[in-house]
Amino acid sequence: MNQLSKSAESLIEYCAADKRICPIADKWQELWKMLPEDLTKEGRDKTAPLPLILAAIECEPWEKRMRVKNHIEWADAHGVISQVDLFLRSLSTEEWEQQTSNYIKDNFYDECSFKYCIDNDDVEGMKIYLSNGVNPNDIYSDYSKGNALVRAAEEGAINAVAYLLSIHVELDAASLSAAVVREHNDILNLLLDSGVVPNADALCSAAGTNNIQGVERLLLAGAPINDVTSFGWYALHNAVIEDQTEIVELLLKSEANSNVATQDGTTPLMIAVSGGDIAIVELLLKYGANPLCRNDNGETALDIARENNQQKVISILESLLSK
Known about the structure:
Order of helices and strands: HEHHHEHHHHHHHHHHHHHHH
Strand content: under 5%
Radius of gyration: 28 Å
Low-confidence stretches: 101-109
Mean pLDDT: 90
Number of strands: 2
Distance between the termini: 66 Å
Strand order of the largest sheet: 1-2
């Protein structure tokens, strides 16, 4: 997205104020005709997007408002922002379509348009909604139920992340998980450098990926390697489950407890033997995993290997136990 001029930023804010949505149909058509063609483009891309004024088009207020913003951005990029600014500011109240309620706070679709701004890394659009009462600490992440910072991290919207950090949004640690599992390591670094504290959930999420740089960065920042997550697992368990041999080794070298157990007594070694992953089994044993630990069903790692007919693992464990 091109950097907007101060005039365009000011005009966008003006058009969003006092419950304005968009110019009425004939005035919006007049505005659109002021926007020049882009001679570097072909086909439909040569002209600005059409105003949403046809009777057959059913649009929510946020969609119309975003289209007006698109037109202002087009005007700014094509050298007619001064004319467009004068035109829009000259319109009377009657020449604007207006929302009768406070739709910034009350209309679900306006929340969606704030999400749209986050997803498109549109800081100027975010500023408009925030200045009109949208709360960045409400839930905006459909996946993790996190705040605006979490959604921005999920979408890789680094400018949105930086802006939200600058206005002291709640530092939700779920933003670290969102960044690291999608390998947005630039955002991960920004979050950590800004004071987001890594927790067990973030490290566990990272351990299940192949993002070893992200795991290393979380460990360097002090992520608790032997703390249980909110869902009852440990980072080492997740690395083993996802067959991330390199990360398993990194965690063990960083003093992860090889015998850490979930609530039902499941150890990382039990998970590894059930899948027959020889490399991970040998790593765990090298770093002190105890094959005699029992889960809540009274089973050892050897019992589980036998149940799953993992002959190579059985041989390794029987040889170890016979010494």
